[in-house]
Amino acid sequence: MNYKTENLRQYSWRQEFGDQFNGRRVLVTGARGFVGSYLCEALLSLGAKVYGTKLNTLSDNEVDGIRFMSVDLRNQQAAKEIVEASNPDFTYHLAALVDTHQQVDLVLPALQHNLVGTLHLLMALLDRQCQRIVITSSSETPPHGQAPNSPYAASKLAMMAYAEMFHTLYGLPVVMARPHMTYGPRQPEDKLIPYVICSILENTSPMLSSGGRICDMVYVKDVVRGLLCMAISNAAVGCTFDIGTGKGVSIREIVTRITALMRTSCFPIFGDLTDRVGEFPQIADIKNSCAALGWQPRWTMDEGLIETIEWYTSPQV
Fold first, then answer.
1. Which of 46, 56, 75, 85 fits 21 for a cystine, CB–CB 3.0-4.6 Å?
2. Could you state, in chain order, the average pLDDT of each consecutive group of 10 residues for the chain (317 residues)?
3. What's the CA gap between 295 and 313, in Å, rounded?
4. Fold of domain 19-179
5. Side by side, which strands form the sheet with 240-243?
6. Taking Cα atoms as reference points, which of 295, 292, 159 lies closest to residue 224?
7. What spatial distance separates the first Cα and last Cα of the chain, rounded to whole Å?
8. How many Å apart are CA 141 and CA 158, to the nearest integer?
9. Residue 202 and residue 185: Cα distance in Å, rounded?
């Protein structure tokens, strides 16, 4: 399929996905996160009944059409209760402790949040009639035979192994998503692209590592499109799908492109931060995603960066 750039700003979830989610009950863990919030907005626009989880709040409530439930998935009974309350047709598991630093004090928190929390959710879904369970991993999970380079990556790798086991042994309709480096409007400012944009807006040079890391930048709406496809594709069950552009780009190239688009003379300082140990190129293999899901990315890096820059430079209501 060929997509015209000028149509991207008028992109409609309904035009692409029709009524396939209309009236469906959808549970989204991590609904208040960056990708989770976009996913919930898309599901609502498609007519779904959305149940979202949030951590460390005192009560359940409804916000902008999303029925939020307070839950800590490290508690097995709590996981059972949210599944019973939502009785989902589709489940998206995005909740996680996302911290890719390499300190040893992250080992147990990453295991408890990302692995144990996932197991509690999968066990709670065993006796339900959920049609699809989409488990989100990360491009941080290493290639076969390569050691994880952070407690976060190790926990996500173990999580994927257990999800595959629950499909193979217990018949859960699990699909595993590997989104690559996702960006877009509303992303927290401690992430690379908003950090660089906001630093430039403050006339401060961004302080960065060497910039040599190779990654695959994918616009947030393309990630959500991929997640939606995984819930409705008959060929998806039991499979793992990369979501990215299939093109590698260095951090230095990304930052240089942002400075060019923003026409700034406030240039970044590379080499101020130390590169992480064991860094490896992270480029999505999207052949299977395109073939099995009928999905492919729509937004180019420039198109996504322009929309992102515009959001951070516009007054927010």
1. 46
2. 50 94 97 95 97 74 85 94 96 91 91 95 95 94 82 93 96 96 95 95 92 94 98 94 96 95 90 81 92 95 95 79
3. 31
4. Rossmann fold (3.40.50)
5. 61-63, 66-70, 49-54, 25-29, 90-93, 132-136, 174-179, 240-243
6. 295
7. 36
8. 9
9. 18
